[in-house]
Specification:
The chain is mainly alpha-helical and 95 residues long. The protein has one domain. The chain contains four helices and no strands. The longest helix is centred in the first third of the chain and has 29 residues. The radius of gyration is 16 Å and the shape is elongated.
Length: 95
């Protein structure tokens, strides 16, 4: 008979994997754009985003706890990149 603890650990595992996938996608996406694209879109530089998102992925892999303060901060950074920076960079590529 499954217990509450098994359900909780399953939810935490799924949450951890989803947040890791979001961070990896944001990191890979940040590396694929050129430095000139970041400047043309008036966003922070490529090195800053790439290093920040890469550190977020590393911390997620090392700590493993998706609700720690560090993971939450880097998750917010990844979501900001995906919601604001990536669309601005993508719009420059289509022109």
């Amino acid at each position: 008979m499954p217990s509450v603890f098994q359900f909780e650990s399953t939810v935490m595992l799924v949450l951890e994997l989803v947040l890791l996938a979001v961070k990896i996608f944001a990191f890979v996406s940040s590396v694929t754009f050129s430095s000139e694209s970041y400047r043309a879109a008036s966003k922070a530089n490529k090195a800053g985003w790439s290093i920040g998102l890469g550190v977020g992925v590393a911390i997620q892999l090392l700590l493993g706890n998706p609700i720690s303060i560090f993971n939450l901060a880097f998750t917010v950074a990844a979501l900001v990149f995906l919601a604001d920076v990536r669309p601005a960079l993508s719009s420059l590529r289509r022109r």
